[in-house]
Amino acid sequence: MIRFDRVAKRYPNGREALAALSFEIPAGEMVFLTGRSGAGKSTVLRLISLLERPTRGQVLVNGQDTGRLPPRLIPAFRRQIGMVFQDHKLLTERSIYDNVALPLIVAHTSLREVDKRVRAALDQVGLLDRLRALPLELSVGEQQRVGIARAVVSKPPLLVADEPTGNLDPQLSCEVMNLFRRFRDVGVTVVVATHDMQLVREAGLREIVLADGKLQDIHVADVPTLEVRR
Q1: Do residues 4 and 44 lie in contact, with contact meaning Cβ atoms separated by under 8 Å?
Q2: Domain with CATH 3.40.50.300 in the chain
Q3: Please, which residues have CB within 8 angstroms of residue 71's CB and are 6 or more apart in sequence?
Q4: Which of 24, 92, 178, 189 is the most buried (most CB within 10 A)?
């Protein structure tokens, strides 16, 4: 599903965010991307999502070389990827239903299919009863779940999340991770960048560790399951 082959990324100001980075993530796996601030985690996610292109090396996502993809094909490529952000990026003046529906509307999906998928996505994250609420009427944890529903409403084969639990307490963080695991269980590839090392240790999943834009380590935590803290 994802392969980085000696990937480097240098920004116009001269900062080298990644250097000769290589790793693979097979389809259907959920992995954590960890490392200190500035290690290159967000840059990796931006390269996967084709928000950036590599300076050197090759990034393959679902068999496509992102560095060679023509601009006209980028929108279709991005529709294969659900993106979850720490700050939710919700439209505060629009209802939860409208926020989740947005990717489908942009893709010119029929209104009947939009309604079906939006309701299904909100049901998956436990918010079907709040579909007419505005984002500011929800808790921070509920807003994050809306962001996840919007990311998966198009049924993408790949889900990437950049610090999705950064503003959440430990219990809500575990609930969000359990949602990601449910998507993994139905075949979605999930890549999560996080600073929450306790969450990573409890998950028992593969961890790709970055340091100064390079691969430092790849390992699996000792504890095999993740449970919501009570």
Answers
A1: yes
A2: 1-80+156-230
A3: none
A4: 189
pLDDT (tens digit per residue) in 40-74: 999 999 999 999 999 999 999 999 999 999 999 99
3-state secondary structure of 202: helix
The segments of the chain whose pLDDT lies below 70 read: 221-230
- pLDDT at residue 166 in the model: 81
Which residue's entry shows tokens 């449970």? 227
Q: Which residues pair with 51 in a beta bridge?
A: none
How many angstroms separate the CA atoms of 172 and 167, rounded? 9
Tell me which architecture the domain covering 1-80+156-230 has in CATH: 3-Layer(aba) Sandwich (3.40)
170-185 helix and 140-152 helix, angle to the nearest 10 degrees: 10
Cα–Cα distance between 31 and 25 in angstroms, integer? 8
Question: What is residue 56's DSSP assignment?
Answer: E
- Sheet of 56-61: strands edge to edge? 16-25, 2-10, 56-61, 64-65
Q: Is 42 left (phi over 0), alpha (psi -120 to 50) or beta?
A: alpha
Supply the pTM of this predicted model: 0.89
Three-state SS for 157?
coil
Measure CA 8 to chain center: 21
Q: Which amino acid is at 127?
A: L
pLDDT tens profile 175-197: 889 999 999 999 999 999 998 88
